[in-house]
Each structure stands twice: as C-alpha cells, then as structure tokens.
UniProtKB/TrEMBL annotation:
A Pfam family recorded for this sequence: Rgg_C
One GO MF term: DNA binding
SUPFAM superfamilies with a match to the protein in the record: lambda repressor-like DNA-binding domains
Species this chain originates from: Streptococcus equi subsp. zooepidemicus
InterPro entries attached to this UniProt entry: Cro/C1-type_HTH, HTH-type_regulator_Rgg, Lambda_DNA-bd_dom_sf, Transcription_activator_Rgg_C
PROSITE patterns according to UniProt: HTH_CROC1
Protein name: Transcriptional regulator
HTH cro/C1-type domain ranges (all copies): 14-66
Superkingdom as given in the UniProt entry: Bacteria
C-alpha cells in the first residue's frame, strides 16, 4: 500500500469514527493505543492486521462493512457482473447475455478466475438455450476448482449455484455433497448463510427438473437443518419445492395442492415472488 492509499484509508477510518461520536480513547484498548490509532488516521503508519480488526470493531463496524466503505460503497466487480447476468437471465435475454460475454474481460484472460467468471455467463446462456456448446475443458475447470477449495466462500457458492445448468447429474450431486461438507466455517455470517440457502434451493430445483427425486430428499433435509424462524424466504420456497416433490413422486397427489399454496403466498403481497413461483413450476413440470 503506497502512502496515498494509506492516507485515504486512515482518513476514511477517522471520518467513520467521528460520525459515530467516538473519540480515539473510546476505541483504544490494551493492545491498541491512542498513539497507534492517531498515526494510522494521519497516514503516518499502517496498523497490523490484528490491530486493524480491533480498530474496526472498536467503531462498531464489521470488517465487511468497513471493506464496503473502502470500496466506495460499491459492490465488487464480480458481484456486479452476477447481478447483471441474473437480470438478463430472468428476462430470457440471450442476445444480451451473448453481448455481455463478448464485452466481459477480466484482469488476465488466462487466469482461472476470469475463466470461471466467463463460465457464469455461458451457463446462463446455456440455461436458456441448451443447444449452446459448453466445452468439456470448462466443465473440468469448474469441478476441479470447486473440489480443490477446502472452505467455500460466497464466491464458490455463487460459482457453483450459477453453473448448475452445465453440470451432469453426477457432478452436481458430488459437488453438492462437497459443498455441504466444506461450507461450515462461514455459516455464522448472515450474508454467507443467505448465499448457502440460495445455493441449496437452486440444487433442489435443478434436481426436481431432472427428476432426481431420491437426492432431492437428501438436500431438503440438509437445508432444513440450517433454517431458523427468521428465514421466511427460504421456508416459503422450500415448502413450495416439497409440494412439487410430493406431486412428482406420489400418484395420489394433485397439482391443485401446489396452486393452492401459490395462492396462499400471493396473500403476502409480493406479486413478483408469486410470478417466480408460477414460472418455476412451469419449468419443472415441463422439463
């Protein structure tokens, strides 16, 4: 970090501290002195990693919140890309996705991460047009990368969840089980828990589409183990998938049970969510 970056980081920290009505001595503690904080804020010296974490917690912020402020309150380039892909995919805009793929360039065209980011776009295109060819080398890169990571972060969750369409049943189930085994350390973080829930919901939906009903039970049980009473989106979505699962696996069940459930959800006053449920039901039953 050069002197200019150091100065800006210290200035930002000072602004955030003052905005919270805190003095240097309010933040200081046994292993973090007022002098160290003052030099950091004035750009004279950098704090060691452990002391920086103490300084951040001392102004009642999480490291993620402080990082967001350092990044100018903007999401990372990757998650901006992910949001754009999701918007185009939801709108079934294949041309838009192809244009995005042609425009997208990472820092290093040969880097693993650049190829994975491009694969997110390719997978979205494939989900809308299965005739699009996905190279076996891309699929191999995806599976080898994910299996090589011992503890999955939000990045791995997003890569996996966004590329389910191009994975074979065997690879998806194999990596899904690996994800459950390797996604434990960060589950206490609310944003990570949310990402894990979404990933499991996507796995369940894809398995229902492919009629892999035996494995649907396995992943439903794993998701139920993670849910708490506050996770209403996950609870509503999971119950929806459970009703579809019952309909597909039991001859005595009726599609009207699913429609009745969607009508109940409609009463929550979220028409966009209801539209998604209707569209998801059509995709699964027509597959």
């Amino acid at each position: 970090m050069n002197s200019t970056d150091l100065m800006r980081l210290g200035e930002l920290y000072k602004e955030l501290r003052i905005a919270r009505g805190l003095r240097l001595k309010d933040v200081a503690r046994d292993n973090l002195s007022v002098s160290q904080l003052s030099k950091f804020e004035n750009g004279q010296s950098m704090l060691a990693a452990d002391k920086l974490l103490l300084a951040i917690s001392g102004i009642h912020m999480t490291f993620a919140e402080f990082g967001h402020a350092v990044n100018g309150y903007k999401v990372s380039d990757f998650f901006q890309l992910g949001t754009k892909v999701a918007e185009l995919q939801t709108a079934s805009d294949i041309d838009g996705l192809k244009e995005l793929l042609s425009q997208y360039k990472g820092d290093d065209i040969f880097s693993v991460y650049n190829r994975l980011n491009e694969l997110i776009i390719k997978s979205a295109i494939y989900s809308l047009d299965p005739n699009v060819k996905i190279e076996e080398s891309d699929k191999q890169l995806l599976t080898e990368y994910l299996y090589s990571i011992e503890e999955w972060t939000e990045y791995e969750l997003y890569i996996f969840g966004g590329c389910l369409a191009i994975l074979s049943d065997e690879d998806m189930i194999f990596l899904g089980k690996a994800f459950i085994e390797r996604d434990k350390i960060f589950l206490s973080l609310p944003q990570h828990r949310k990402a894990a829930h979404i990933t499991l919901l996507n796995i369940i939906m894809t398995l229902l589409e492919r009629r892999q009903l035996f494995y649907v039970d396995f992943f439903i049980k794993k998701l139920e183990e993670l849910i708490i009473y506050q996770d209403m989106f996950t609870i509503v979505s999971l119950n929806f998938f459970k009703k579809i699962h019952t309909y597909l696996s039991e001859e005595s069940s009726h599609k009207s049970d699913i429609e009745d459930y969607i009508n109940l959800v409609k009463q929550l006053g979220n028409p966009q969510f209801v539209q998604i449920l209707h569209r998801t039901l059509s995709v699964i039953l027509d597959s």
